Amino acid sequence: MKAQRLFELIGLVEEDLVLQAMETPRRQRFPVGLAAAACLTLCAVSLPLSGLLSPKGAQMESAPAEAPSAPSAGAPGCAAEEFSFLSYAGPILPMIIPQITGLEASRDLVISVTDGSAAVSDSYIFTNHTEQDFSFTALYPVCGSLSSLDQILPTVTTNGADTETSLYAGQYAGSFTAAYGSGDDSRRDNLLQPSSWDHYDKILQDKDDAGYALVPMADLSEPVTVYEFSDFITRPDYDAATLAIEFTLPSEDTAIMTYGFNGSTWSGTWRQYDFFVPNGIRRDISPKLLILMGEDIGSYQLAGYTDGSCEEPLSGLSCHVERYESDMGTVLERLCQSYLEQNASGADISGILHSDPANIPPELFVRCAAEILTEYGVLSESPAERYDFGRLDEVIQEALIMKRIFYTAFNITIPAGESTTITACSRRAESFNFPGTKRSGTTGFDFLTNGLPTTLTVEGVSAEQLGSNNLPAPQSAPTPYHHYYFEISP
Amino acid sequence: MEDHAIIDLYWQRQEAAISETAQKYGSFLTALSRNILRSVDDAEECVNDTYLRAWNSIPPQRPSAFKVWLGRITRNLSLDRWRRINAAKRSGDETDILLGELDSCVPATKDVERHLEDQEIADIISAFLHRQTVRNRTIFLRRYWYGASIAEIAEGMHCTESAVKLSLFRTRAKLRETLEKEGIVL
């Protein structure tokens, strides 16, 4: 009864305290207001939009053989802000090619809309009017994440024949936001994935994303001390038996990272990192590592507890602890590889993979994880709150889900006096609103032009279904690097 | 609609006051009540009773923080209802667990006892909470004001459940110590 009275008394505490505790996180604003279009039938009708862009080709001025640079995308004044969906798939981006004098180029973009996605055929026809061969490297960018890589990657053909490609990853295209109740907008607790063209526009405009993709990953050769835990002995009468390693932080400069741990407690320089002891019942097969960059901890205590609160000691728990020295890159590579292997064996740990793990290039996985660790994690100069506990579990998993631009690179040779057609075929998910939300059922696609004379064909959409759009008017002059979109009414 | 405009509707005895209240705070109050009762139907009844209490209390009252004021009514009604439902038994539900946790805050009886008015004790608790970190205070109030589960708090605070439990454990211990120092009897 006294507890109930105390509960009632707590109900009378200052209103400001109560309001502060209920502060909601800053949510991303999704502008709405586009009227839902009518017309419900999905027809397999071709909507020819050919000749919408200027027939005059962009003049190519030089012939460098080195890798090209990214386009400066997003023309001012385009109506991109009106293209807004709760689930934004990202734009169809144009091929990145160098400017070469004497080489004429045009683009033929076909978007064939089917149920929930579109087949995109993006062809570039190069004609060499000179008497010398032109060779260069081109990049074809696509938006997505490592977790869905095999659904977004293009196949590239040269005059119909398969072309050998290599893959590069740009930087995380989103940002971070404050957490629920933090009351501090400067905090970076949550991922804010790119949810509109603006995000990609920003990364293309403000940062050399393609250049970033082509340079080697961050240097992770720094030595680390690793404590690896294995050969667990648990108590079958305790479902949540927990082991914790407890120690005193040797130095303020020591960075501590963990993998496979479930909790941690910090008090002054005292640290406790704990994990549920694998019992053969829980799906818990990931390696358990404590990684120190900097001064070693020296002595530590391994303590058993009845559960994850680590309040009631429990005897009879033990494990083997192996200490070894390595470097951060090797550790990260091992953890990424381990994650892929565990998923490949059918043990779907997190359920975040939409691709066959075998199709995720390990080197790209490590690169994306290294980006988080060095740009936003404990190895960065200013760690985001999201990663400041040093949990590599989040780093590994979020390397897979962070949306970014991937660049498929390939070499092109245009013989003197000849024409060559390069075609990138890929599938593009639709942008959509979730059921029950405003404009549910309306979907859309958006794309970017790059100044080349472009023929656009949209298939699978009737004229009646074509909703709000800013497709270029026929015979209008092309605007280099312009963002276009169209919506499809349900 | 702004809170003061809704309160004006109550003062003008316009029934739109109820619908505006429900529209603005209905989901919040239902969630608050459901945290205690763990039943949507019971929670909705408590929320409807809250609107009735508000209608009967305004005027003469003019709450300064309307949301918290409504929340307090819902909270008290929900606790009363929970008591009736769980009379003479320990149900072992989330609220039972929550109240069990608060048992550890109840100060031991001392020789010098102070029988204070409820609001005076609440002011002491407020002062105590002001002395805590924002994080610990937020966790404490989400648990014992809003009745949120440990898992919900952990998710909202982006930390582990064990970290939430540890924070609550420490804050409860300090609150008990504070109440005992004040010689308060509940």
Keywords:
heterodimer; A: 490 residues; alpha+beta; 2 domains; seven-stranded mixed β-sheet; four-stranded antiparallel β-sheet; 8 helices; globular; B: 186 residues; mainly alpha; Rna Polymerase Sigma Factor, Chain: A; Arc Repressor Mutant, subunit A; 9 helices
Please identify the oligomeric state: heterodimer
Structural class of chain A: alpha+beta
Number of helices of chain B: 9
Number of strands of chain B: 0
Fraction of residues of chain A in helices?
Answer: 10-25%
| Total domains of chain A | 2
How far is it from the N-terminal to the C-terminal residue of chain B, by CA?
A: 40 Å
CATH architectural group of the largest domain in chain B: Orthogonal Bundle
The dominant shape of chain B is globular
Cα-based radius of gyration of chain A, to the nearest Å: 27 Å
| Gyration radius from CA atoms of chain B, angstroms | 18 Å
CATH superfamily of the largest domain in chain B: Winged helix-like DNA-binding domain superfamily/Winged helix DNA-binding domain
- Greatest interface (CB-CB under 8 A), with counts per chain: A-B, 38 and 47 residues
Q: Can you tell me the CATH class of the largest domain in chain B?
A: Mainly Alpha
Uncertain spans of chain A: 24-81
Order of helices and strands of chain B: HHHHHHHHH
Helix-strand layout with pairing:
The complex is a heterodimer of chains A (490) and B (186).
Chain A: H1 2-10, H2 15-21, E1 46-49, E2 103-114, E3 117-128, E4 134-144, H3 149-152, E5 155-158, E6 161-162, E7 166-172, E8 175-177, E9 190-192, H4 197-206, H5 209-214, E10 223-233, E11 242-248, E12 255-259, E13 263-267, E14 270-276, E15 288-293, E16 301-305, E17 318-327, H6 328-344, H7 362-376, H8 392-401, E18 404-414, E19 419-429, E20 431-432, E21 443-448, E22 454-459, E23 466-469, E24 483-488
Parallel strand pairs in A: 2-22
Antiparallel strand pairs in A: 1-22, 2-3, 3-19, 4-18, 5-6, 5-19, 7-18, 8-9, 10-15, 10-17, 11-14, 11-16, 12-15, 13-14, 20-21, 21-24, 23-24
Helix pairs in contact in A: 6-7, 7-8
Chain B: H1 3-11, H2 16-37, H3 40-57, H4 66-85, H5 94-103, H6 118-130, H7 134-144, H8 150-157, H9 161-181
Helix pairs in contact in B: 1-2, 2-3, 2-4, 3-4, 7-9, 8-9
